[in-house]
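=== RUN LOG ===
request id: a7f3
mode: sequence -> structure
chains: 1
length: 458
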Amino acid sequence: MKYAFPDNFWWGSASSALQTEGAREGETTWDYWFAREPNRFHNGVGPQQTSTFYQHWKTDIQLLKQLNHNSFRTSISWARLIPDGIGEVNPEAVDFYNQVIDELNEQGITPFMTLFHFDMPMAMQEIGGWENRDVVDAYARYAQICFELFGDRVLHWFTFNEPIVPVEGGYLYDFHYPNVVDFKRAATVAYHTVLAHAQAVRAYRAGHYAGEIGIVLNLTPSYPRSQNPADVKAANVADLMFNRSFLDPVLRGEYPADLVALLKSYDQLPACKPEDGFLIAEGKIDLLGVNYYQPRRVKCRDSAVNPQAPFMPEWFFDSYEMPGRKMNPYRGWEIYEPGIYDILVNLRDNYGNPRCFISENGMGVENEQRFIENGQINDQYRIEFISEHLAWLHKGISEGCNCLGYHMWTFIDNWSWCNAYKNRYGFIQLDLATQKRTIKKSGEWFSATALNNSFDRE
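=== RESULT ===
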């Protein structure tokens, strides 16, 4: 069967500054944490050892061209542009980002630019990070500087990538710095992130730039174990906390009343100011990026909550392992292709069918050298992963969902937060010792798919 996509469909991939560029002047939370606890990082490989985009941006953009990308998302590093977060702008960073943006445009690759992709400048974290409203203001200034510097050539902006992740990792589940376990502080971080987003949107609108502004959310559909009311309720709470806590403010301009009531009843609401509501209402977006990797399957709790334990989302649900589920054993994630369709249908039916695109989808695999044939990684598993997700995406589009593109994570194997290079995600293999780039089988497949704006599948 042939799957053809709409004209001007965005074909591309996504990456981030911190995971690709390499050393910068401004220290981030990742540099600080790695210097103190290298044991928390896979094989002790820290954020200085990246895929060297800072040196190889020109040839890497040629590779994007070879893969027939018509669009590409990366991020600007706040710590590179303004090393202390609030002071002078680094002219070398301005030159670098100008060159990257100009080269992308020259090659016919539309730049999509994210302002914050987990890389908090350490100077900002030292005064409380997203817990401090002064950091919200500093971020708004940084955003405005980016719009002024690059807004004439970047027409697709995103305030944040996966803003729930620093909340979960840094303030609930201890997998990002500052390794705090405290729900109320987590709620404050989430709330201030929404305020920062809204301030950036307000600044963008005030500048009357030619493009559009949005946000990238990792949406994990919550599926109940059964239709038992207790399971359904558990899935709804998970959806409120992990999806709707950001989705509703950016698309509806307000928080879900159910979420506010729930947190209030447990005294977990962040401190709010009367004018915040007006600001949040101004933060409604033009374009939603959707990162989809895996579903969330939940059931009602089978055991009582330990009243001495920290308040957590898991007070309201347990995770559920669906029998017979398909797994990516390297990442420990379920592969569930219809989830991408369910997200689009939910956006269509419950959020007014916003303009959106798949901003990340991908499959990390360990030790891919096993699959080298004639000098090339034959990653047929990745081709199947992409094509099956695209088939469900195609179904959503054919049923009226307003999805404008598909970006894969990622174009070259890159450094991944605490996992370093354990799992490889790229269309292009990176030899860490030599920095040599070699296109994988999946890269060739994607290149042909993008060129033809379609693919065939049995």
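=== NOTES ===
The mean pLDDT is 96.
The two ends are 6 Å apart (CA to CA).
=== END ===
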